[in-house]
Amino acid sequence: MSLINRFPDDFIWGTATSAYQIEGGANQGGRGRSIWDAFCDIPGNVVNGDSGEQACDHFHRFAEDVKLMANMGVGAYRFSISWPRLLPNGTRDNVNQAGIDFYNRLIDCCLSHGIQPWVTLYHWDLPDDLQTSDGGWMGEKTSGLFADYAQLCFEQYGDRVKHWITINEAWVVSVLGHGQGVFAPGHSSNSEPYQVAHNLLLAHGKAVKIYREQFQSTQGGVIGITNNCDWREPLTNDPQDHAAAQRALEFFLGWFADPIYLGDYPQAMRDKVADRLPEMTPEHKALIQGSSDFFGLNHYTTMLASESDGDVKDQNVYGNGGLSEDQGIDLTVDKDWEKTDMQWAVVPWGCRKLLEWIAARYDNPALYITENGCAYDDELVDGSVNDQRRIDYYASYLEECANAIDNGVNLKGYFAWSLLDNFEWAQGYQKRFGLHHVDFKTFRRTPKNSALWFSKMLKRNLD
Ligand code: GAL
Predict the structure, then answer these.
(1) Which residues are substrate-binding (predicted)?
(2) Which helix (DSSP H) or strand (DSSP E) does residue 220 occupy?
(3) Is 371 a catalytic residue?
(4) What does the alpha-carbon distance between residue 118 and residue 218 come to, in Å, rounded to a whole number?
(5) Residue 248 near residue 318, CB atoms below 8 Å
(6) Catalytic residue status for 169
(7) Active-site residue among 233, 250, 307, 371?
(8) Separation in Å, CA 89 to CA 133, 249, 393, 427
């Protein structure tokens, strides 16, 4: 059976981006500074001293980008709203009308091409004023200000936006931003991540409460959160390695999904980091439990987990290890696995296993893969980009998504990361995830072969 026919007719196909990675126009249209502008200003934080100041210039070229999606035949576009573009200082005391207008134009443009906007409210670009004056996500105050900002978005856009994602990858904000310090705001600590994670969950819960109480019945949309997780495969059949892999998943995804679906942090975390894990009070639990209409998942790769021999090997493995010393786990990869240019292993069956793990643990929720994709150092040659490895990656991961659906997983949509080559955070512009090549001097976009492949698949023209 052809790949597309293995998915239900109402399956959502989309592409994803985020504001700081593509918009540019950082100093235009009244936008305030974010913690990523501040982080990029510090030499050594980002490869080549890159920043998102211009990025893909999507701020000016969004109509062209929506056309690229329309040409691909996707039905949904997941983008994020830049909080400091709407509220330059982070609070509703100062609303930037030019920012409001920009997203109105973008949303209307999507809809006029038959593309449903899926809006992420927080993809890491916290208004810098909230960091410098209120301690950012370390303070509970920020969670209330996030809910105020979310309310503004529901008021302005909720008549047309029917899919909301509160927070993108709270794990990254907590671990990479406040644990390893490799992402904004660049803090290194073994306790901050747990406090930040708690405040992010509260921010999510407060925004969802407002949406449900004041908007959902009239606007008729849904709201959820997107978490990221790699698969953790036991290194050996030893029960200790099985337990280690399970614990690793609980520390990665259970950290955020257990409070939402089960009402508290995973037992493994309560046992191992009791000294630093904030208490889930009855008030917090009331806000957080049951606060997601769907399960958003970003997934890229797999690692092998084993019981730690006490000598932590993967500390500060960019993006993968997390706070491994707290978990008692060693992580490795099979040397035979192919790796992308992010050094992330290509393991399609890990995607299926993770989907099945989520379905089993959280009672088979409606699931959307809100990001999946790969970085390869593509070259534009004679007007085209032959990115066969990316096509193979997508085809193999989608086969496993279809297998998961066959096995009963309630997977309802898939968003490819990313529509465009973009600013890949601390890696700058050197890591390319896009379905479209972007020349960062001229901003010219060229569909890669992977975009053409997607388009053929979606239009049912794939052999
Ligand atoms: C995710 C993130 C995206 C993108 C992607 C590839 O963690 O949400 O913004 O950078 O990884 O690294």
Answers:
(1) 21, 123, 168, 300, 417, 424-425
(2) none
(3) yes
(4) 18
(5) no
(6) yes
(7) 371
(8) 10, 37, 41, 27
Task: Give the residue ranges of the annotated binding site for substrate.
Answer: 21, 123, 168, 300, 417, 424-425
> Which two tokens mark 54?
């211009």
Q: What is the mean pLDDT of the segment spanning 50-59? A: 98
Q: Which helix (H) or strand (E) holds 215?
A: none
| pTM of this structure | 0.98
Query: What distance in angstroms lies between residue 424's CA and the mean position of ligand 1's atoms?
Result: 7
Domain ranges of the chain: 3-458
Asked whether 168 lines ligand 1 (CB < 6 A), one says yes
Q: Quote the tokens at residue 326.
A: 């707290």
User: How do residues 221-276 score in pLDDT, each as one tens digit?
Assistant: 999 999 999 999 999 999 999 999 999 999 999 999 999 999 999 999 999 999 99
Closest residue (by CA) to atom 9 of ligand 1?
18
* Helix H or strand E segment including 304: strand 302-307
Nearest Cα residue to 116 out of 189, 46, 3, 13: 13
User: What is the length of the chain?
Assistant: 463
- Ligand 1 atom with the smallest distance to the CA of 18 is 9
Name the pLDDT band for 429 (thresholds 50, 70, 90). very high
Give the Å distances, CA to CA, from 25 to 28, 47, 62, 99, 431: 5, 21, 12, 11, 21
**Which value, to the nearest 10 degrees, does the dihedral of the CA atoms of residues 419, 436, 103, 90 take?**
70
| Class at the top of the CATH hierarchy for domain 3-458 | alpha beta
pLDDT of 322 reads 57
Give pLDDT tens digits for 76-92: 999 999 999 999 999 99
